[in-house]
Design a protein that fits this description.
Two copies of one chain form a homodimer. Chain A contains 17 helices and 20 strands. Chain A is α+β, with helices and mostly antiparallel strands. In chain A, strands 12, 13, 14, 15, 16, 17, 18, 19 and 20 form a nine-stranded antiparallel beta sheet that branches. Chain A has a five-stranded antiparallel beta sheet with strand order 5-6-10-8-9.
């Protein structure tokens, strides 16, 4: 859920050093400067009077995502309606060396949309068309304003769905820009595996189709893999204006379960064995005792407060039976409790809502505090030791950090709940994250947002 | 099988234009030129006397792969034993602006190893260690001399395997360099999905770990996705000296089948429906009537000479039953014949050997001729029409081009069997491939080797 998935991206660096700093200019001052005047009137002539905003509320709304990171408002927000407008706006910015910040839904948790050097925010919400659905080819093309929930609503009667699910209702192009992942990556992969083609506006306004215009091959080895260079580039290489996505058949049957374990090791061992047994598990999510306690309180549940797995199975009725019996056998042999079942859609959606609300549940542990995410991925075999050491570290340093993870991928989040007005606590959090990084050096990769996290800690909000 | 999968890559372009052309120098001439002398003795001091070869036979062996493309021998072949030697050799080449051509097994079918501007071939066969196997993490790291069959032999007792299978026993780093695919990509993906990390020596000799040194995360969103920029770069961005690969559990049970269809449309419709039904099919390969006829002759089989699917199912015994019954229902509803079963390992391996030998079966259709591959990927829904039009074109132009394809991915190969001594036929082939490209413009991507293919046609072997 607190994957770096929701924001459309970060700074797009135009070549050059001397930014035109519109920041702080009042509209009258702007109209007094002919160059800046030219810029704004160019913007207005491209996307209309109501397509350009200098209002403080609008700028502040676009300088912040859902994270703890402080608001860095852009100097101006533009609302292009099509790729041609994005391109024309980018050309103006390029010729005046203005930073561009693409903005999707602002649901990111890592401050990626902050205009740290001011500049022009491209809000892409007006471009919200589902363009080409090819059910027989299992693909669809969407504009940047389309969110994953909107797409799945659009697909409702087709028997198809798009599975990548970072929790928030992020825009799909933003999810491509940030290489979003989520609870069912273990079965369906991340954005990396599910983007077939991108239309991108580069810094100079030129338009690039990473796999060729209008192409949507299932695989390609022609030329460099520019699609995957753009996926995860966080807006630094271009503004994604279209993405073609791989779709999947809606599973015939779905079942979810919750299982409690005596230890972190037992939960992770079960995960490894389930994967080794070839069970095509759709979701296998770990929550530590602190996190399950937080979820119990926030979502009115009453699961045992021990290391817990949330599981989901997709398949035909028959295959589901087999997946479940294999998994149940494995969890029991590791001391796991009996599955608590969630077969009906309502109970299932309540269960996964609780998991997706883990961020807010964490925040609710300490009212008035702020939360920020860490995001670590290690080989599965290293996971129990690292989680145990991390929990010891948290206790020793009097920090609140409930843990949840996409355990099938070796990926976990420790949600730091901090009092932003307590410099000592902020300092302890800062040292903790440094230790987390060094503990996992040579073995882990911080998934994203490093820069912005340290930025936060150096410049507390 | 004739995927661009086997060769270690293409030209690595050192920055600069003035190559030192060793080509054609005899060893005495070389020893008469102090600069070149210095180069060769540097090479020898790095990888030993027997690690440098100027012999014509060795050079010719390294100037050609298994394709029709003419031999372009390098000026010298070096045999480094470790990454430090590769790096030191690359530094020498860089300072003298010599082209580098990485060489794996030479099993490519697109001429990627040809030293079109002379230069130094880096044969990586001495680096053949399996370095780090982590069964509990489903990953392994290998040096460039390790082939896919060698790896799977090494894994035999672990319950794990590496599924990407381009037919030839290519080196795994070569398969990474060329973004190899194969018959079971429909289930397990291509190299793109299965490479976790690469160690790469860049043109200046510096060593890059694309996902961080020693790291093998299942996923990452930290920084640019350099791993996938290198996968498929065909040796143009660096020399791959190590690759960390994702492994899979050996399926509990496997079954193969052959099914004949009244038309191309019926075979492809069945494929779409099988995928839509969510059958996790491991292989679904299309062979047209000409190809099945060629395979019958070459491999002593007697399948009906009509459009045919070769299928393979992986899973537990119970899941297999279900996969098979769903698939059989679908094929029958499309007019497919009863499955011909291959349940025992011997019959199965005979079946897939026949499929993998399709290249040689095609060649055997016209003794004395040469074959070269085309490699087209289109959205599945476009496949029947394009195959039908392609077959009409072949007949009209009196060309031999049996067709086989990884139909689950919309990817097919038309193997052009040509008489290299017939300029008129070569010309007709040239025009045919141009039409194939234009027919599929906006809808398809030539998977690879375009440059080398047109190069062939302009300069017949």
């Amino acid at each position: 859920m607190w994957q770096s998935s929701a924001a459309a991206g970060r700074l797009l660096l135009c070549s050059g050093r001397s930014w035109l700093q519109l920041r702080g200019y009042s509209s009258t001052v702007i109209s007094g400067k002919t160059v800046e005047d030219g810029v704004l009137s160019s913007f207005r002539s491209i996307c209309g009077e109501d397509g350009v905003s200098l209002g403080q509320a609008v700028r502040e709304q676009h300088g912040k995502d859902e994270s703890v990171h402080r608001c860095c408002p852009p100097d101006v927000v533009v609302f292009p309606r099509c790729v041609e407008e994005v391109s024309a706006l980018a050309r103006v910015c390029h010729s005046h060396r203005l930073p561009i910040i693409p903005f999707g839904t602002g649901t990111g948790l890592e401050g990626g949309v902050g205009a740290v050097k001011g500049g022009v925010c491209f809000s892409l919400r007006k471009m919200d068309a589902v363009l080409d659905l090819h059910p027989e080819d299992f693909d669809v093309t969407v504009e940047p304003g389309v969110t994953r929930k909107a797409l799945n609503a659009y697909l409702r009667d087709t028997g198809l769905w798009f599975p990548v699910d970072p929790g928030a209702d992020a825009s799909l192009c933003g999810m491509a820009a940030t290489s979003a992942s989520g609870t069912n990556a273990v079965r369906y992969g991340t954005m990396r595996e599910n983007v077939l083609n991108l239309e991108v506006v580069l810094a100079d306004g030129s338009v690039l189709h990473t796999a060729g215009k209008g192409r949507r091959p299932r695989k390609t080895a022609a030329g460099y893999n520019l699609t995957n260079l753009l996926v995860g580039s966080e807006g630094t290489l271009g503004i994604i204006t279209k993405t073609t996505l791989r779709l999947y058949g809606v599973p015939e049957a779905t079942a979810s379960a919750v299982c409690s374990f005596p230890s972190v090791q037992a939960a992770v061992d079960s995960t490894v064995q389930v994967l080794q047994a070839g069970v095509p598990i759709a979701r296998i999510e770990f929550l530590d005792d602190v996190m399950i306690d937080a979820c119990n309180r926030f979502s009115s549940l009453n699961y045992p407060v021990t290391p817990t797995l949330f599981l989901e199975f997709h398949g035909s009725e028959r295959s589901l039976e087999e997946q479940v019996s294999t998994t149940e056998e494995i969890t029991q042999s590791n001391g796991g409790a009996d599955f608590q079942w969630a077969r009906d859609a309502e109970t299932r959606s309540r269960l996964w809502k609780a998991r997706h609300d883990a961020w807010y549940a964490s925040l609710a542990l300490r009212p008035g505090c702020k939360a920020y995410a860490t995001d670590v991925c290690v080989p599965l075999s290293r996971l129990p030791q690292i989680i145990v050491e991390t929990k010891e570290d948290l206790i020793e340093n009097r920090l609140t950090g409930p843990i949840a993870g996409h355990v099938g991928d070796g990926n976990f989040h420790c949600v730091m709940v901090v009092n932003p007005d307590d410099p000592d606590e902020l300092h302890r959090v800062h040292l903790f994250t440094q230790r987390l990084a060094s503990l996992t050096t040579l073995r882990c990769v911080f998934l994203s947002g490093k820069l912005h996290r340290s930025h936060l800690l150096v410049n507390p909000p």
